[in-house]
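Quick one, tokens below. Sequence please?
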């Protein structure tokens, strides 16, 4: 394997170092490119550019591989739960019994939202987009916990364990409170029960009376959150790292990640998938017309829940969620016509050369909405669920940035394409 790369520019030869990751990923180290050649590298959207070294998640898009700290997602989905996987992603190892208990205790101790923070909710219209509420209320955690949000890496890392547990727990509770607020229902305080059961309790208690999650419901929400826990340098995680690189505190950086996740090309896709499936159902289409429109190109016609910036094979999470979908609906005795439409779309697209040639497969968002709908979660809350699930990944990435002694503020360059130098024109000469 090459250890250097040779670059010939303007009749000069340059030698650039090559980096190799623990899974054999190779990179040309261009950190000195501009200083040595006067050239920058150009990669719109950074699809071919590594912004960092990270030990958290490994993705192999060509082979549909996803591992957290070396553990395959299939094994974690089968054997673990959201709390344990969150610990693994943040701290790098599966917790022993004492560590698991201490982490769970912290999550439960910091589950509630204090009255002064509760007052913030009243400042929003009842029909505000839930992600707009979530990003701003999470940002206020920095205002309500300034001792954990000093914007000094050394001080904030000293309090990291508390801030991390508080963030994961309160993002979950804020999500449930947004649902209650928007439905005119009273807030339900957290109980001393497991993380996911507590979420469902704070969302639905009247419906389930003295709520105790049925095992299959608890397993479904655990699996859903676990499968969203981290995903390498996706748009929102890279945003958290970029904001954190300025020494902004954890809560502020998480709020930025929530903003990035809200876009329909990223975390908003699960919502867009459900709207797509519902409109196909309402038009009594079997998906044929929709696929024809999707093949016509254009970002507005896309088959939502299909395609991925990295996977050129099945998103392994989609396979797991697709199976969990069947299990949950069967156990709950729900016959959701949208599942049949999704299966039809998947089968049709996987035989269609347009999708095959572009290596477009179902991604994590294609089936997740059907499970959430089966659990009674409204469509406009789907991306909030994604954010609750992704919080451990964001937190682990923020910690890598904060703890990196050689870390630098993210400051990409550009190729300028605007007007060249020109002189100021007085108003009278502007035509
Ligand atoms: C997530 O990064 C992550 O890891 C993200 C995520 C995570 O866990 O954090 O996995 C979560 O964001 C999953 C993706 C959710 N988004 C969607 O499902 C929205 C629909 N998908 C697309 O918009 C698209 O596939 C993206 C945005 C996901 C990826 O876009 P790329 O890699 O930039 O692909 P592209 O836009 O360059 O498209 C390549 C070609 C184009 O056609 P041509 O110009 O070559 O003719 O594929 C076509 C696109 O038009 N295409 C699609 C399509 N996705 C791409 N055509 C129809 N339907 C689609 N879904």
């Amino acid at each position: 394997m090459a250890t250097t790369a040779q670059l010939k520019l303007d009749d000069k030869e340059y030698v650039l170092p090559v980096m190799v990751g623990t899974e054999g990923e190779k990179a040309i180290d261009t950190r000195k490119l501009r200083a040595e050649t006067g050239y920058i590298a150009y990669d719109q959207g950074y699809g071919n550019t590594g912004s960092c070294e990270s030990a958290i998640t490994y993705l192999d898009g060509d082979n549909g591989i996803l591992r957290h700290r070396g553990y395959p997602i299939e094994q974690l989905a089968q054997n673990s739960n959201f709390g344990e996987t969150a610990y693994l992603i943040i701290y790098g190892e599966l917790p022993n019994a004492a560590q698991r208990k201490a982490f769970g205790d912290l999550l439960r101790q910091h589950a509630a939202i204090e009255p002064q923070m509760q007052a913030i909710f009243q400042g929003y219209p009842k029909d505000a987009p839930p992600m707009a509420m979530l990003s701003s209320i999470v940002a206020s955690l920095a205002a309500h916990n300034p001792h954990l949000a000093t914007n000094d890496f050394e001080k904030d890392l000293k309090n990291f364990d508390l801030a991390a547990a508080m963030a994961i727990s309160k993002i979950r509770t804020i999500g449930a409170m947004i649902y209650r607020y928007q439905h005119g229902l009273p807030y339900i305080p957290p109980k001393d029960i497991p993380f996911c059961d507590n979420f469902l309790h704070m969302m639905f208690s009247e419906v389930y009376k003295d709520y105790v999650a049925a095992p299959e419901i608890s397993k479904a929400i655990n699996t859903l959150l676990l499968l969203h826990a981290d995903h390498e340098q996706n748009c929102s995680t890279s945003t958290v790292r970029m904001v954190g690189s300025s020494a902004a505190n954890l809560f502020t950086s998480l709020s930025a990640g929530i903003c990035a996740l809200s876009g329909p090309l990223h975390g908003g896709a699960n919502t867009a998938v459900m709207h797509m499936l519902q409109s196909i159902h309402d038009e009594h289409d079997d998906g044929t017309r929709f696929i024809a429109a999707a093949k016509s190109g254009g970002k507005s016609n896309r088959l939502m829940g299909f395609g991925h910036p990295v996977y050129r094979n099945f998103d392994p999470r989609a396979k797991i969620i697709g199976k969990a979908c069947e299990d949950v609906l069967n156990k709950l005795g729900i016959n959701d016509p949208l599942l049949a439409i999704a299966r039809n779309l998947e089968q049709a697209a996987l035989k269609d050369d347009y999708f095959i040639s572009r290596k477009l497969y179902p991604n994590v968002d294609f089936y997740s909405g059907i499970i959430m709908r089966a659990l009674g979660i409204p469509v406009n809350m789907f991306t909030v669920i994604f954010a609750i699930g992704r919080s451990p990944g964001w937190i682990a990435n923020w910690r890598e940035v904060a703890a990196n002694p050689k870390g630098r503020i993210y400051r990409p360059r550009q190729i300028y394409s605007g007007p060249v130098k020109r002189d100021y024109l007085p108003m009278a000469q502007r035509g």
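The first strand starts at residue 4 and ends at 9. The domain at 4-50 is CATH 2.20.28 (Rubrerythrin, domain 2).
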